[in-house]
Amino acid sequence: MTARRHQQGAALLTAMIIVTLIASLAAGMVWQQYRAVQTEAADRARAQSTWILQGALDWARLILQEDAKGNRNKPVDHLGEPWSVPLAEARLSTFLAADNTAASNDEGPEAFLSGSIEDAQSHYNLRALLGGAQVPELEQRVLERLCNQVNAPPGTAAVIINGLRAAFPAPASGASAPSRSASDVESGPLQPAGLDQLSWLGLDADTLARLQPYVVLLPKPTPVNLNTAPREVIAALFDGVTLADAERLVQSRKGRPLQNTADAAAFLPATVQIAAGRASVDSSFFIITGRLRLDERQLEQRSLIERQGLTVVVLARERINQLIDR
């Protein structure tokens, strides 16, 4: 009788072990299937986001191309043109719907698209600090004035100049562009491709945020567009120009954009000389920003483009995936 009970107990224990193993295997398979579904959904969402943002970029390029056609005879870029109007955040289903009825229901994806086109030449191009054996004194004063206007820490201008000069050494005599030897590449600082990467030079995030509305780092030297530049950049660009002088120019161009740099002379002190290589009324470089918001996440794409005649070329592209605080 005791042996029979032992056999029954062993059988029950074996059955429980088998049930436990089957449950564990089933749970593992369910988990793997769940992860596979989640991975596939994430890949699909990533692909869809990429295509949507690429479409927004192509749309912005088309706008700039049409603007170039309209300004073919007299290139003038200002803030009253269609490219400068940002795209307010709108539900993506409103673009995809076939009619108003489809757009009004809740069957569309909870995705929202927004974007803008910014004139990169409305900022002071730090590339003006490079290229020669010495930093031009005027360009150094421009950067120092901008740093003072944004209340950057003392010595910020010197940090930027020294860092950029080390990363982009001056070309040898007769050379057309800076060249770096293998040892320079290994021991010297990395060459920043944009303003965000100036943190490599030792600038903190707060200082970069203060400078971002006013400076930019483009692939080649460019003049500042007086039709789109903020007053801080205009005041810093020339010796003897105050913020009040720059503000008068900014207010005047709202009603009538500058047709050439000579038009700006009426709002600046008579001693100011506007060199063609330092100021202009048209632009070739633009920054296109597209934002796609889906639930609690936002994917932002920033593209630097150059307009070469009627051709719009993408030079750089950066994507930032952000988690939105609720």
Could you walk me through the main structural features you see in this protein, from its secondary elements to its overall organization?
It is a single chain. This protein is an alpha/beta fold and 326 residues long. It contains nine helices and nine strands. The chain has helices spanning 2-70, 93-96, 100-104, 137-149, 156-167, 182-187, 205-211, 231-237, 243-255; strands spanning 87-91, 111-119, 124-125, 215-216, 224-225, 279-280, 285-294, 297-308, 311-323. The strands form three sheets. The chain has a five-stranded antiparallel sheet with strand order 1-2-7-8-9. Strands 3-4 form a two-stranded parallel sheet. Helix 4 (137-149) packs antiparallel against helix 8 and helix 8 packs across helix 9 (243-255). It starts with a helix and ends with a strand.
Q: Give the rounded overall mean pLDDT.
A: 84
Number of strands: 9
Helical amount among residues, as a percent range? Answer: 40-55%
* C-alpha-based Rg, rounded: 29 Å
Distance between the termini: 68 Å
Strand order of the largest sheet: 1-2-7-8-9
Helix count from the secondary structure assignment: 9
Q: Write down the secondary-structure element order.
A: HEHHEEHHHHEEHHEEEE
Question: What proportion strand?
Answer: 15-25%
Q: What about the largest sheet?
A: 5 strands, antiparallel
Are there runs of 5+ residues with pLDDT below 50, and where?
174-180
Principal-axes shape call: elongated
Structure class: alpha/beta
Family: Belongs to the GSP K family.
InterPro entries: GspK, Pilin-like, T2SSK_SAM-like_2nd
Domain T2SS protein K second SAM-like: 224-270
Transmembrane segments: 12-31
